[in-house]
């Protein structure tokens, strides 16, 4: 059941849920994952036996199915945008894309800027498909002057890009849009939006954070627990080593490997289900579409990556109020605009306490803060049919009402 929680003054503060001791949590988490993987293998093996006993076919037919399965797993294409758009600002590490239809350019509505996730994947997740497009839902809510930043793959020339560069490109984008905007930040795009809003509160009309880690140490998260355990023992050395192996950038393949390692049973199930349904064109197409986005990775600028690991993942300075960028304190208490927070009930990447911590850190009036918990996990917040149909529309409708003259 989807839950909407208004945050009026009389309800008091949402309690901060402390994470369990990292090593104990990780041991239990990975033990449970191993059990799930064994269960999935057993299920697939049983399904294969039933299939072999009921399907009429020759060994050549079975071999042909195997080849098609293997080919489908390896055949990857570059993700693409679905909605028509125009690049209106180019930098070596980010593009600003304008999704405003020509007949809506003069609409009297505050423009909206979407900051997609940035975790080694394409920014097209916010426009995943014609049926699963966060951008399409935003436009349909009346926020017709719509823009999104596209994070470009890091290269040797952009390995030294820093948090300052990312904040500057957001500021240039807001300038391009008229000087004030609704910010919508997904996951990593969310904490980036929060930092920008803390430094430039007068430029942000409303702030929406979906699956965005604000208190990186709250709740139980395998990413947070792993980072805390590693940095306690070795500091930044493991992360610097990965960046060194990537030629100065964090390899997208390494980030992908980490995500798969977090839930190996999910990856295993997806591949085995493909084999079981290799003769179903609709299933194969859905599989291809997701894999094209998930497995087509891109590198992250090394300097930026090491900064966020140290300042946010390790030292948790965003929520503590100690984060300083270029000599300026990024204090979330500077944020007073309406705040919308969306978390996934079963999000294993960013558990709800990490998102909802923002409600206690800002100075937005309580009656202008909305906390919402959606069914499902992390990716479902940005591309899931249920969240796009039931969770985003009421939040966007409220933002639209606030964005009219």
Automatic annotation (TrEMBL):
Work out whether the entry's keyword set contains Hydrolase: yes
Q: Which GO terms describe its molecular function?
A: hydrolase activity
Task: Enumerate the InterPro entries for this protein.
Answer: AB_hydrolase_fold, DUF3141, PHA/PHB_synthase
Tell me which domain of life the UniProt entry assigns to the organism this sequence originates from: Bacteria
Q: Name one Pfam family in it.
A: DUF3141
Which keywords appear in this protein's UniProt record, sorted alphabetically? Answer: Hydrolase
Protein name according to UniProt: Alpha/beta fold hydrolase
């Amino acid at each position: 059941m989807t839950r909407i929680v208004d945050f009026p003054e009389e309800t008091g503060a949402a309690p901060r849920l402390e994470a369990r001791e990292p090593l104990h949590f990780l041991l239990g988490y990975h033990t449970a994952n191993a059990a799930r993987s064994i269960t999935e293998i057993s299920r697939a093996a049983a399904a294969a036996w039933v299939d072999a006993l009921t399907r009429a076919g020759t060994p050549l037919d079975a071999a042909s199915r195997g080849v098609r399965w293997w080919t489908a797993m390896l055949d990857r294409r570059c993700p693409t945008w679905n909605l028509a758009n125009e690049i209106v600002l180019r930098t070596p590490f980010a593009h600003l894309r304008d999704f405003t239809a020509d007949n809506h350019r003069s609409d009297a509505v505050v423009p909206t800027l979407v900051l997609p996730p940035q975790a080694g994947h394409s920014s097209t997740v916010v426009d995943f498909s014609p049926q699963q497009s966060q951008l399409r839902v935003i436009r349909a809510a009346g926020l017709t002057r719509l823009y999104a930043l596209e994070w470009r793959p890091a290269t040797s020339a952009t390995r030294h890009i820093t948090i300052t560069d990312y904040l500057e490109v957001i500021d240039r984008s807001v300038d391009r849009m008229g000087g004030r905007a609704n910010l919508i930040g997904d996951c990593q795009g969310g904490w980036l939006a929060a930092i920008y809003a803390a430094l430039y509160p007068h430029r942000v009309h409303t702030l929406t954070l979906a699956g965005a880690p604000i208190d990186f140490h709250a709740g139980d998260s395998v990413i947070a627990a792993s980072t805390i355990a590693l940095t306690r023992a070795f500091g930044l050395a493991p992360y610097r080593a990965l960046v060194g192996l990537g030629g100065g950038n964090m390899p997208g393949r390494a980030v992908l490997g980490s995500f798969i390692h977090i839930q190996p049973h999910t990856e295993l199930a997806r591949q085995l289900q493909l084999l079981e349904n290799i003769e179903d064109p609709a299933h194969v197409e859905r599989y291809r579409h997701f894999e094209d986005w998930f497995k087509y990775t891109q590198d992250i600028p090394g300097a930026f990556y090491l900064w966020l690991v140290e300042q946010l993942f390790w030292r948790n300075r965003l929520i503590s109020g100690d984060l300083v960028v270029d000599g300026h304190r990024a204090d979330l208490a500077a944020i007073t605009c309406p705040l919308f927070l969306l978390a996934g009930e079963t999000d294993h990447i960013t558990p709800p306490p990490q998102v909802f911590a923002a409600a206690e850190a800002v100075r937005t009036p309580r009656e202008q803060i909305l906390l919402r918990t959606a069914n499902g996990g992390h990716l479902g917040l940005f591309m899931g049919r249920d969240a796009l149909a039931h969770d985003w529309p009421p939040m966007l409708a409220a933002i639209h009402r606030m964005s009219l003259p």
